[in-house]
């Protein structure tokens, strides 16, 4: 599965945490985990998905801060809306890191 490029697990009513093993999918380009009941925080192992361009985790139960690695990857589209994230984004530093992002929905 290390060569997997597209992962769509949307609208399945999955719950619990996303496993750290997600980071082993280094070829992953698009990840749609929206419309589930994933909770707690996004795993830092996503940082290993260096080819990731589209990242959709909207409509879940994630909590805490939106991790800074979201802005360090060369993502083009990020959707994190309809979660329970809190805290502040570190403007303007966050915007400088997010130079590749063309669409951001939170």
Automatic annotation (TrEMBL):
GO cellular component, one term: plasma membrane
Entry annotated with the keyword Hydrolase: no
Signal peptide feature range: none
Keywords: Cell membrane, Glycoprotein, Kinase, Leucine-rich repeat, Membrane, Receptor, Repeat, Signal, Transferase, Transmembrane, Transmembrane helix
Superkingdom, natural source: Eukaryota
Subcellular localization: Cell membrane
Main location: membrane
Record's protein name: Leucine-rich repeat protein kinase family protein
């Amino acid at each position: 599965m290390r060569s997997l490029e597209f992962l769509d697990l949307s609208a399945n009513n999955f719950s619990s945490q996303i496993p750290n093993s997600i980071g082993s999918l280094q070829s992953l380009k698009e990840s749609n985990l929206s419309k589930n009941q994933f909770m707690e925080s996004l795993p830092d192992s996503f940082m290993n998905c260096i080819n990731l361009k589209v990242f959709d985790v909207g409509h879940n139960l994630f909590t805490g801060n939106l991790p800074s690695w979201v802005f360090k990857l060369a993502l083009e589209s990020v959707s994190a809306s309809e979660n329970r994230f809190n805290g502040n984004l570190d403007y303007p530093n966050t915007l400088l890191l997010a130079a590749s992002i063309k669409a951001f929905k939170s």
